[in-house]
């Protein structure tokens, strides 16, 4: 982990700067979270929630060793949906940028992006046998749409069925989709990669990509 900003390699600082420029949709609340310490010498992690916004109070907590570089603008536009505690959570995710100045044969580069997304689906879509392939397609299409060049991509899609019993038997069964994926960006400029991933989190939440200045109506899941 980084103990002081002065110890951070220039390449990683540049990458952090490109993350600050990312423009994400207002439905996405994006905050820095503690990064894993053992995956790479340098790392930064962002946590995301897609929540139907219900207020306007500014809130932008920042944590971790990259706080000085990321400041309070991990994603422009997040403030519009910051007060989402009373809203409905549609999807969550994590975006982790790893950096090894010596490079990694496994990564095929000095940087690696590791991501996780989870969202609850309605029963009809959750039971679709092609759901895993569709989730992977969302990732590939998002990277291509944002012109985010990458290589050595891999991932796993999982459906999670939750059933309740006993005193909780009245709760309806739910199906979640989880996607764990990683890929190597072609350069230290990872702005487009974060924007592509944030769009994909919104897609998982049932909010399709929209033109600039257009807002989607919140989608309610069926029980």
Describe it for me?
It is a single chain. With 223 residues, this protein is an alpha+beta fold. It has 5 helices and 6 strands, in the order αββαββααββα. It has helices spanning 10-20, 67-70, 123-126, 131-145, 191-204; strands at residues 28-33, 42-51, 89-104, 109-121, 150-162, 174-185. The chain has a 6-stranded antiparallel β-sheet with strand order 1-2-3-4-6-5.
Secondary structure elements and pairings:
Elements: H1 10-20, E1 28-33, E2 42-51, H2 67-70, E3 89-104, E4 109-121, H3 123-126, H4 131-145, E5 150-162, E6 174-185, H5 191-204
Antiparallel strand pairs: 1-2, 2-3, 3-4, 4-6, 5-6
Quaternary state of this entry equals: single chain
Strand order of the largest sheet: 1-2-3-4-6-5
Any low-confidence stretches, pLDDT <50, length ≥5? 55-85, 214-223
Q: Which descriptor suits the 3D outline?
A: elongated
Spatial extent as radius of gyration: 18 Å
How much of the sequence is in beta strands? 25-35%
User: What is the helix fraction of residues, given as a range?
Assistant: 10-25%
Largest sheet: 6 strands, antiparallel
Derived structural class: alpha+beta
Q: How many beta-strand elements?
A: 6
**What's the number of helices?**
5
Run of helices and strands:
HEEHEEHHEEH
Give the CA-CA distance, first to last residue.
43 Å
| Mean pLDDT score | 76
């Amino acid at each position: 982990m980084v103990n002081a900003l002065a110890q951070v390699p220039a390449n990683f600082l540049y990458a952090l700067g490109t993350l600050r420029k990312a423009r994400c949709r207002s439905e996405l609340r994006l905050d820095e979270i503690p990064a894993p310490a053992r995956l790479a010498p340098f790392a930064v992690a962002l946590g995301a929630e897609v929540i139907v916004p219900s207020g306007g109070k500014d809130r932008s907590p920042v944590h971790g060793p990259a706080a000085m570089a990321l400041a309070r603008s991990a994603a422009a536009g997040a403030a519009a949906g910051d007060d989402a505690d009373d809203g409905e959570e549609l999807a969550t995710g994590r975006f982790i940028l790893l950096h090894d100045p010596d490079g990694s044969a496994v990564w095929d580069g000095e940087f690696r992006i590791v991501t996780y997304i989870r969202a609850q689906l309605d029963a009809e879509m959750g039971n679709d046998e092609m759901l895993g392939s569709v989730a992977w397609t969302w990732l590939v299409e998002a990277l291509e749409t944002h012109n985010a060049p990458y290589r050595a991509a891999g991932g796993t899609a999982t459906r999670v069925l939750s059933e309740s019993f006993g005193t909780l038997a009245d709760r309806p069964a739910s199906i979640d989709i989880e996607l764990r994926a990683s890929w190597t960006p072609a350069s230290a400029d990872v702005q487009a990669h974060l924007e592509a991933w944030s769009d994909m989190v919104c897609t998982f939440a049932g909010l399709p990509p929209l033109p600039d200045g257009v807002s989607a109506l919140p989608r309610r899941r069926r029980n």
